[in-house]
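Researcher: We're teaching a course module on how sequence relates to structure. For the next exercise, students receive a sequence and then see the predicted structure as tokens, so they can try to spot secondary structure elements on their own. Here is the exercise chain.
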Amino acid sequence: MSLGLVVTAGIGTVIAYELCRRYVLDKDATPWDVAKKAWQQSWKQATVVGLLTVLVAMLGILTVSYIPTLGFANVIVPLLVTGFFLLILLFWCLPLVARFNNPTGRQLRNGLTLGLATPSLTFLLTLAALLVGFALWNFVPAVFVLPGAILLWWCSLLERFFVDRGYIKPFAEEAEE
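Model: And here is the predicted structure for the students to work with:
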């Protein structure tokens, strides 16, 4: 059962992103139709990127497990690098899989490039993720609200980012299609 959750983590995130994107753009479609279309269009790439994300998360957990023996000072840099790549995979690469039709390698390269080329957005996202993590650690029931809120916020930022860079049409024109 847990293997099924690992395999579907990527496509689940892509579907969640697509549902949030539709909400941000005010498009009329039922959640079931949006989820079905996102699944049909992106399940292969999302599964590959999702499994890569799980591997990076496992590397992060392995890194944390070395804290008692090596000490926090010796583990902080690999932990930050692992966390950074996990953040890019989750919040740059998977939304690109949902939004654009490119080969998987290209999606990963574009996500990494965008994450590194826009340090202000990536830093803002890192800050938000840390604040949400802190809030969840201290108030566990927030898990029902905060992940959705951060996803909606990030989706609206990404849509504006894509429009400003000319990757997609502005909201009004896209809503008319």
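Model: If you want an answer key for the exercise: The chain has nine helices and no strands. The chain has one domain: 2-176.
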